[in-house]
User: Fold these one by one.
Assistant:
Number 1:
Amino acid sequence: MGELVVDKHVKYILSVEKRKDSFESVVLEHLRMNGAYWGLTTLDLLGKLDALDSNEVIQWIMKCQHESGGFAGNIGHDPHLLYTLSAVQVLALFDKLNVLDADKVANYISGLQNEDGSFSGDEWGEVDSRFSYLAICCLSILHRLDKMNVEKAVNYIASCKNVDGGFGCTPGGESHAGQIFCCVGALAITGSLHHVDKDLLGWWLCERQVKSGGLNGRPEKLPDVCYSWWVLSSLIMIDRVHWINKDKLVKFILNCQDTENGGISDRPEDAVDVFHTYFGVAGLSLLEYPGLKAIDPAHALPVDVVNRIFFQK
Amino acid sequence: MREESMISKGNSLNLLDAFELILESDPLIDEVGFIHPSQFVTLNKEATSSLKHEDANFWSRDHKLAISTDVLLPLYKAAKDAFMHAISQYKRHGNLSDASGYASNLESEAMKHSKALLLLSCDFGTAWNFRKLIVSKKQKIMLFLDELLLSALVLSYSPKSEKAWCHRRWVIKMIAGKCSTLQDIAGKESELVEKIAERSKMNYRAWNHRCWLVSYMTTEQVLHELKKSRNWAGLHVADNSCFHYRTRLMLRIMEEHCHKLEDGTSDENNEIYQIWQEELDWNEALIKRYVGREALWLHRRFLSLSWIRHFTTTLGDTSNYRACKSSINGGIGIFMDNELHLANSCSTIPDNDFEDFQAQTMYSATYILWLTKQISDSQGIELPEKPNHGSLETMLNMACPERSFLWDILTRITGKCDEVLKENNC
């Protein structure tokens, strides 16, 4: 088994931004803000955040802010909670939350809460428990949780719980490891984990580990590196991570590296991308892989960044 | 250098014009795909009717459209630039009075480019949003229905597109109050999901959409869906989403049934009892026919747990608590005996080591342990007797010695039972 090829991953992440020559890379420009979060958080976990010019990034982020206070995925696009959290997270990485008008961002977010406590992703009204997480995590980082109705938000998330202990997009929706991370993360941040049946959910999550050691996101699916993050972080938050085989999972993630050109893919031998590179490295961080910064399972930011947000001042 | 880039920009615009012309000339295109130019030849041989359009970049016939992978990058760039330019113009001048026709011209330009763009980049949210803005301003049913066509077209090349599914829900919510054919729409949507799920296996977004539709269905529709999806599920036993859809339908039926019991408009369990019994029998038959399928065993967990909760705890009334309890225990006892029998019959590993049989043994053992744990955790339901630690241990040892969490759970269940027994003896 190889080791984590840190320098190659750093090189890969720095190169992703410069690639404008293929349809596949250009066609995702509408979610560049998420890409920035994945890439930069990975760099920070690897201890290499200083490899690029933070001013340039911050200027670009602020150009993506809409007059409503929300952030878009790129300049000139419409705002959405998906990109608003990423923007705030990246500013937190650089310790630059002070460039924000926090109340303005918080007003945008709390304005998207619905009567039943759920959140819409943007003004067009689609509801999803993921959006509840985005709102709660973002307001938490901004120290503005009091701007929303936490009790109603928590009750809505609890209403998305299924008989198998997992959570879906809306009440009655199928359990999915990504949704579970969002719901458990939101409940953890708001101190409401008593809504989770930890043994039942832990059981479902542990059954995501397949023979190769990798994790899938739903029954009968192939393993995928991104679930290393979603399943693991959930297991940590509900205190059941000792129930899976960590060594096998570390091996699975390391086997998904492109050891020549850097980057991590969904499964061994597939093409790498920045999304899976982040989830692979973040997963290894949760598994306490040597040389990586620790990551906070609920806020999805390095622990030192989270400590700076909550314990400084 | 500058001349070269101007030429290529000019070419891209021609490309976009050609693309948009095809879209305009055939508004009934219902399928689009990106293909390598070498495949154009094969397409021509297979096609039956006359060619609608063919050059080196596009191919269109029988309301199907193919785009050459060679032109995707310049075409996307041209469509995006044209759209972004058009909406910035629209935002600047769109509020002018319509008299000049200028505003409406800007609007139709932006709509045209947004369509081209979405056929190349399915999750370009700003383009979907712009369409929502225009359509909601006009409030014409026909325009809303056109949006359903466009998103279906996008789903034909990108069946997992989150934004395309979301656009459909937005349209349906918008017309929900105005359109008497809402039930028809729910029915047609459900068919669309099934068609897409056939081509795109285990598509979470598609099935999530179908689950969402359930709240718009009548009771008759829900029963019809339960009947209809059974066939599909039987042919796709590894697709957990379809079994979850059945869970959703069954819970809705159960919910309505409980309301009726509360209102006093019904006092019989027969119909719902029968639905559950049929599903349990059918699931058992599938488990035996398709060896080692996780989704089937997980569906059984749901069926059995809700059976125990609803059909063994509602026997008798609360005034007769003690009598009720004993009949519950008896009921659970018989039920669990049957389940143990099923699990045991699925736990024989033949001499060859086919993975499917090993999986079957593991799923049956974890199924029994899961059910035992749920019962022992539920308030008001007591295990008929202390689970046989020895036999569960043997089963787990045989089936999945590496799943350490199961041992943890097993120890806790038997520990809890010991405590209860001690209390009872005092």
Number 2:
Amino acid sequence: MLELRSVTAGYDRRAPVVRDVSLTVSAGEAVGLQGPSGCGKSTLARVAALLHRPDSGQVVLDGETARGWRHRAPRAQRTAFGVVFQQPRLSADPRLPLAELIAEPLRSNGRPTDGVRELAETVGLGADLLGRRPHEVSDGQLQRACLARALALRPRWLVCDEMTAMLDASTTAALVGVVEAYRRESGAGLLAVGHDRVLLERWCDRTVGWAELTSR
Amino acid sequence: MAETTRLPAESERTEGWRTRAVARRSTRAWRVRGSAAVVAVLVLAVLLVPPFVQLDQQAVDLAAKLRPPSWEHPFGTDDVGRDLLLRCVYGLRVSLLVGVVAAVVATVVGTAVGALAGALGGWPDRVLMRLVDVFASVPHLLLGIFIVAMFRPGVWPVVVSVALTHWLSTARIVRAEVLSLRSRPYVDAAISGGASRYRVAVRHLLPGVLPQAGLAAVLMVPHAVWHESALSFLGLGLPTHQASLGTLVQTARGSLLAGDWWPTLFPGLCTVVATLAIAGLAGAWRERLNPRRRSELML
């Protein structure tokens, strides 16, 4: 279970973007977080994935309170999250071919990288694309690789921050299908952030509007 | 009347624009080729002449002192009859060595400081950047003079002096670049994937700043050559018997007052041509890295 307890966060202490927000993702649950752009939902997702230190509040992972963020978080806590960002172009190092991109989390943890081809297959990337660099593939193909990277360490939670905002309908459907297949097989929880209410309501067990979260 | 006021047709206008753009591109290409050719000739001369040409640059021939340029001595001779072409080649050799070593040292120091400041952030960043500010607050030629004055004249004090006064801008550029790379989502993704600070720095940040740092190093070579010349000209750099572009001009001052122009002109011309050629190449590289910024010479 992933709990965010009265989190206040932002980029300037005097004007936090997220004020006193609490949100719980139960074991195996898929929670959609819906809100207009610029409201702070991405910041909240980054706090949840231990990538942004909140000004106050707590993040609790299966009863264990997070003490550090970013590099200060223990590796086991950081890698419990698979994160997929909105813009695949910015979330892929332009120098790394896709195979390296997908293998990156495995290498960082000193694990063997022979599962890369299989990971690529689960997200629908052919072996011929794995040698290409990010600028040689389309946004959709790159986002598939980013999803494969997020799944590489078999995370307990997936955080998808507007994962499909840049993609066409068929790629969106394919990626959501991949996420759901992984969740069925592993029992992982999901925090999906987006502005598309229709998509989130079809995808997630429950969808929370940003207004409901902050008006309490 | 109607004929003369007619606006050029669309196709003609775009045609004109296109030819101008092509012309601009081709003059740029020729500038790059010219610079490359000059640099190649100078580097070959500097590398090949000393080992293969059996002439002593220090050979004094008082019978042939202060000869104007001729077929025998294309650059003339100096006040003790040494051949100035040969002296210029040896001088360029020393000046380029000083320039390249100083530029590389300055770039390594600057990249290390900038990368550390950018990657660590917080108080190490503040301390390092205030250090940069302190260095930058003193005019750098003055600081360079102060540093060489602490040592006996020689090549290495000049290298140290130029390197220690020129890492600042590289440090600032690299820090800014690291800061911008550090906030990219792919660094977030790496952290989430369990990458250590070291791994993020070596795998993602450093490769991102290396092209900029390499460019800074090449841009610094001509600047460092000028500094060597300036320090030597002031009598603080290399000892006068050692030919360098700066010492050659400095020792020639006396004869210039007597109306003998060639001992000053040719070493000076060598300095200008060599540094312009290197700067031209560096400018082309910068344009490739960052096409939106018009290249200007940085000396």
Number 3:
Amino acid sequence: MKIVRWTVCLALSAAACALTSGTAAAETIKVGVIATFSGPNAIWGKQFREAIDVYVAQHGSEVAGHKVEFIYKDVGGPNADASKAAAQELLIRDGVKYLAGFDFTPNAVAVAPLIKQAKVPAVIFNAGTSSINKQSEYFIRTSFTLWQVSAPAGEWAAKNGAKKVVTAVTDYNPGVDAEAAFSSTFQKNGGEIVEKIRMPLNTTDFSPFMQRIKNSGADAVFAFLPAGPATFAFTKAYNENGLRAAGINFYGTGETDETTIDALGDQAIGLVTAYHYSGAHDSPLNKSFVAKLKELHPSSRANLASVGAYDGVELIYRMIKAAGGDGPKAVEAAKGMEWESPRGPIKIDPVSRHVVQNVYIRRVERGSDGYLINKEFATIPNVADLGYSQ
Amino acid sequence: MSIILSILVDGIAYGMILFMISVGLSITMGLMRIINLAHGGFALFGGAMAHVLTIRMGMPFLGAFLLSVLGVVVIAAPLERLLYRHIYGFDELGQVLATVGIVFLMIATVNLFLGSTILAIRSPEVFTTAVNLGFKTLPFHRVVVIASGMVLLAGLWLLVEKTRFGIYLRAAVDNRNAAASLGIDTPRVYLAAFSLGAGLAATGGILGAELLPIEAYYPLRYMVLFLIVVAVGGLGSVAGSFFAALGLGILDTFGRYLLPDIGPIFFFLAIIMLLALRPNGLLGRAG
Amino acid sequence: MTDLVTPRVSTRRAIPLFGSLWPIAIVILAAFAAFFLFPYDLAFLTRIVIMMVFVLSFDLILGYAGIATLGHAAMYGCGAYAAGLFALHISPDPLVGLLIGATAGALIGWASGLVLLRTHGMTLLIISIAVTMVLQEAASKARWLTGGADGLPGISVSPILGFFEFDFVGQVAFIYSVCVLVAVLVLCHVLVSSPFGLALRGIKNSASRMRAIGTPVYRRKVTVYTIAGAIAGIAGALAAQVTGLVGLEVFNFSLSADVMVMLILGGAGRLYGALIGTLIFMTVHHVAASIDPFNWLFVIGFMLLVVVFALPDGLVSLPARLVRFLRRA
């Protein structure tokens, strides 16, 4: 037991050393980024990392005398075990003062007990389940939740001519959230949900669902699917089974993601979605962000993951400016922060620690540079995370 | 009635895509008796080449398709000479390890050069139009797939059952030494059969890309699907793979349409039941 | 196709009981050394140890009984969910939790084994995959119970034996996992050197011969599958307790495939082969992924090919090969 106690002392003193040294001036502050860099979902980590590159290229790697260093850890997809182990390694060995990244909900939730104990803020760049932020005071999120974008989508659809809508969502938690949020506001505004279709997670052929959507007699479909092959195949099936020709409108959220939209080609043109960020958002800040991204990574396109990471780093820089490496102070400082992001004006809600932002209604068009873009044409301002109180 | 008809049509179209993609695997795994987990890798290579040719170089679809299939055969042949030739001699566990290693390298290569996003293949405009069957519409692309599936089935059946190559192949598979002593050039027969399997994988990968989009992790994402089709069809049976693919396509479509809540559970339970009752698959040879 | 594992006549003599206890001693020593040498990597080391328990259970069925499956995650996942739910709703005691995990793994192993052990080869592989898929779909549907894709969060266990509480650095978790590993290793060792273990090896080499001498082959297979299920369940339960969250990925096909790759890499049919394969695979993966998070798959792919071509019997055959090579030289 004696030996064990000795190492406990050693490890704890190292950790304590790492924890206290942050207050000293001109210290290097390390930020651990936990995300998926390999496997079928590697796009998340790639987008995160490139956006961080852009931010650092624009703003330098020094804040208030501190040098900021990013350490990347791959967890290969939704993997709670790997995420927690990576966080432990980052906190204990590397002595990071901030954690960031987190593309999938289980990966974020798994670190909740750790960040509570270590008093280290964790900035979530994506994972969008509302309840995550309830697991620890130290979670702050710069992405979006499905309630946040789907509820405005329902309201907008009802006010803009949709009478009868069929929802078609993937049968997993985010899909169920999207369905609930859209239905509640759509019905509140006088619309009718004629059918709720839930599609199994590993569906590859969507024709059967297209037939059901057609048979439901709806004049529009609201869809939510995980990014990647599923959205690709769904939107393709929507066109090829003649739904568009039959006049059934498409409403979605992230289905027209910038990284997959060009694979859809002309079929995507005209799809309407409600979302918090478009790579084509018309503002000088976004233009410089997108231009810098193009310069550093010519084949990349800015999407929700990019802006989540970009704003996440902005937030971390602001917290470092306000509190250095002092976690609790940094979280306090973050509450209520407001700034202009490439997506538009944003604010950190002091209660939910989630970003309050505009939700835009967009339509897919062919941009001047030949790429497909999400052109924003209506704005629902200052939407908070409506799912936090659900 | 029209619902059942519509499920049937959707199911057949889906099943035909499954057939196209997995028939090559049925050949390498069933006839050549090698656990080739890298099969999907050849489909990925075919799809990736078709992507580069149609999107980045602006080639028309048909030319790109033929060139890609040819390209995959050109890659597969030396791979067979260098690697697979030795892998045939490994025990099954060694084959698993070796082909998993190969598929990892294939994925990493595509990921390095083309990234991990969906690699679209531009197909002719006419593919995306809807064909009206009266009781439902069917994407024209599916009509093309169904037709090419039938052609492939007929061609393969003729090749394996009626040609000299087919006789050599079956002889070489049943008893390699005896075949060799009868003067059959078994290494060349194996080379040809392997290249054929790879070419079929590429064909299926490209034509099926509308449904199973090509991306770097394609071989792992759909490995289970391919294995199921081959196992249900029965190893070594082209016709078995065909009926299995069609049956599974219809079963899956049926489950998703009528029982969306438990569709996948129903699908996998049905497979368990079927295999428990017919362990050699629909048309597999015993043992 | 015949069995996935070709019958190979064993040339090794029966292992004397104490002569091969040295792997267990080495495991304990290595764990001690790792504890002091890598005090900052205990979380990762704990993952390796848990995976070792899991791969050991797979060695029992693949390496010893010759049953090749691609659905071993079924038992791991059931163990994880069972232990997680037990800790959340009934009792936070970790050791009882392990027992619950083992029971869940054994139950699912027994039930699925009854069906799938009647088949072999490719059919067995596919049924084992299908069983895992059914469980994953069911866990995904039962959101009220499992939390669905968000995972089952907030699992916390009481101090082990009432004394040792899971700490921030992960020391207790590591020691706890090593203790479980050693216990499982001893159990497996006793099992494989017992008459039952010899019968398994006989079945692997020639099932028909064993049937001819009166061994109930099917029943022996179901028994070992159930035992392996229990151990896999323990591994899952351990992971659930250490991580504090169970996600749907415990049923992933890739987990089952990884386990098979790790075992073959190390050398199937030898307990320490399972340990070495897991250690090498996970360490190489970890190091390669931290050097280049995007392209580490190249390294793993090359490693597998090199091993399978240079050492067809897995990494454990390396020393013997070296000795032979040196003697010739």
Number 4:
Amino acid sequence: MKYAVADISSSSLSVIIAEICGTEIEVTGKERESLSLLYYMDGKDLSRRGMEKLAAALAQMKSRLAEIGVGKCWLIATAALRHIGNFAEVTEFVRQRTGLIVNLIDGKSEAYCDYIANRCYSSCDRAVLVDLGGKSMEICALGDGKDGMVCFDFGLIDLYEKFADKIKPDENEAKDMGKYVRTRFDKAGLPEDGEYKTVVLVGQTCGSIYDMYKEFTDTDEGDGAKTMERKALFRLIKRLISGADRSRLILQTAPEKTHVILPAAVVLKKLIKRFDATNLIVSDYGVKEGYLSLMLDGKESGAYYDFGSESTEGDARMPLGKRDKGRTGSRTPVRRNKSEEIPAKKRVKSAGDGKQS
Amino acid sequence: MRIGILTSGGDCAGLNAVIRAIGLYCYKNIQNLEIVGVPDGYGGLIRGDSLRMTEHDFSDILDRGGTVLGTSRQPFKRMTVEENGESRLEKMCENYKKLGLDCLFTLGGAGTHKTAALLSFEGCNVIGLPKTIDNDIYGTDVTFGFQTAVEVVTDSIDRIKTTVASHRRTMLVEIMGNKAGWLTLNSGIAAGADMIIIPEIPFNIDAVCDFISGSRKDKPYNIIAVAEGATLDSEAAFKKSERIFVRTDMGETTVTRHLAEIIGERTGTETRYTVLGYLQRGGTPCAYDRLLCTRLGSFAAHLAKEGRFGVTAAAVGGEITFNALSDIAGKYKLVDPKGATVRSAKDIGISFGIK
């Protein structure tokens, strides 16, 4: 049977299609439709137009999945949708229009899904996973499982809203953003120099940075692992922050990520410098792959659409009452006084410690 | 509120109708308003030119063709290239500030929308409006100017048909549309063309000639609607630059003349071709476009009043709405070879030049 997991993020709707080959899950297809939800907000709420766009994109995706013979599809949403003021209205609208039920993934589960999907990188020298999302960020030491995770409940959109006057921050705003991020990392007790040698970048935004990196360095992707050279990446980041053609670069590779690319670049630079990491790998696998793996192992829950019976089965993951408190989706800067990170139960350790889950 | 309006790229019917709707809405619904027209499209913004527009300037231009603001083509690729230490994009952003604009309406096609997205990324408050006779802007069912062009092309083919029928010829009519075949498809069907050749469906010369030979048994003449971006199936795998190179080497930019010669040689029918050219852009907007332009312009002005920028107005399912520029910039809406319109045409025997 073919399985699919679709993910609604702040800038796109993406889907993976997978089949079970023996004991392995093989991803046989990926699709992505840009959907800049930020432009469709009415204050804290997603506008009617935004809901229509989302439902239309999901309906199209569903019909393509039916065409290629997918049997079951899970629809998941991470922090981006979780923080929308009228979340319940949005999910009900989606259900009525498409029959799909949204499964909410909280920050910690998102990090664990990333981890499950990227366990293969555990063999890399002192590796850490980094997933930079619009409304949350997950950092996870490979080898430490759930104990090695730090989930930040602020994301790239929050950084944009807090620091950028225009759509993209200028050099001074980028500096302020960097200082703020560093403070939050310090508060969360994120390890410093030399702790990690390898950074494995996960998620759509990191993927977009890699696409820009390819364009910037004229690199062919080839069949091997996607890697970035630290110096060249820093040159790209400098150009993104102050280069005359930065807008063209973003427009060519990831127009829907205009608001988040520069904050992502700032955070990435801070992390790489903080860890003094030299191996930079961009993973093709993330929360969708991890979620599917856990679902098929019976270790996750969630409602899915059954294309055979044309109906939804199971209960939605994370009921509404348990979801995070709604937060602003507007341009109003997000200011919080106390640290709201989920503290790591123990200090994030390197995979080099030899502990693997 | 200080509002700027510019029209960019190739002209088409309906530009003035949109300008009118924006102006009239703003003067009736926005306080402390000043509107400036930016002449010659992005060229005017690069130079920092502007002209003040009073309510009177918008009153009598609904049915006027072209654009009262003037237009120019400014290739997107050149926008971020530094010239004398400054790029065109930087100049435009500087002049946006110098002109004291709170909002800029950009009326244009796919290229104009890409540049509008650039301006938006740099912090300018931009609202796009989808203009093109090609109807290829992503995210909108229809663009303004398209329907008028369909009417003009249909009428032209109708007129050509009487001559072709009298002389028992095969006539190839070349229609605008480099990437997208919407104009050729819709006007071809509306004018009763026997064959429609569009970029989205690469054609086969043998299939074209076989169809013409076969159809002569029932009908003494043929009309073939050919989009200027029509591509041979043998060229389909080529990159655009390679195709242009080969064609330039042959002294032509489109395949129409060459195809007419081959049809004439192989089928023995007297074959001619005609290029409609700029006829397709000109003239007054049809009633459909006047209505569409008024709805789009009024809605776009409403978006400005609401403070929603970085978007473009769109017609979706009969409603006027908006899309984020970042969701549509750089994308094209092309004819679906398996879509309903193509299927309907095939069902009544219209050939697409394929086996």
